Amino acid sequence: MVSEFIDYYRVLLEKNYDDSKRRSEDLDAVLGFSLKYNSLSDFLSDLTMDPTSLSLDKMKPDDTDSDLLNLSTVHSAKGLEFDLVFVLNTTEGIFPSSKNTNIEEERRLFYVAITRARKELYLTRPSLAQSRSGPYYTKLSRFLSEIQFPEKVYELKLMSGKSVSKNPFANQGSFVKNTNDSFSRIQDYFGN
After folding, report:
1. Where is the UvrD-like helicase C-terminal domain (predicted)?
2. Which residue among 7, 38, 157, 175 is buried most deeply as judged by most CB within 10 Å?
3. Are residue 32 and residue 111 in the same domain, yes or no?
């Protein structure tokens, strides 16, 4: 089934793109990846909802590989913990998504994201974002206002175009320090 879609898009590439050969190689890679699946449904599920499920074993580094960086979706991180976690783009419309009408499911996903950190948790968001209609100021996610954060919360603003002469995090600590007390309050809020 995937090969039929690939063949269809290959024709479009040749008609519409100067770099059709390079793009066609990308389609070949997708086709090769899809051959490992018995059904289109399984392939699309892994590709869209859980793209890192095939490498979850790599997300559990042993103690000898402390420099490993793991990039993950929230769905893929369920059940895993890391010393340091960054949750990106905690803005209204992104987390929670403006496309999802199930706010409770979004809230549960946010809970999963923030409870993956054993030691330090950083919640980030851009002040300014870009859409098709132009730049706009972002709004902090409503989920952040629902949580009573511990006493060690820092806000650090870095402006685009400004150079940072030293490590901005050196004396700041983490955005949210993961302490037993703070996470028990978060778990109490979410009912765990």
Report:
1. 40-124
2. 175
3. no
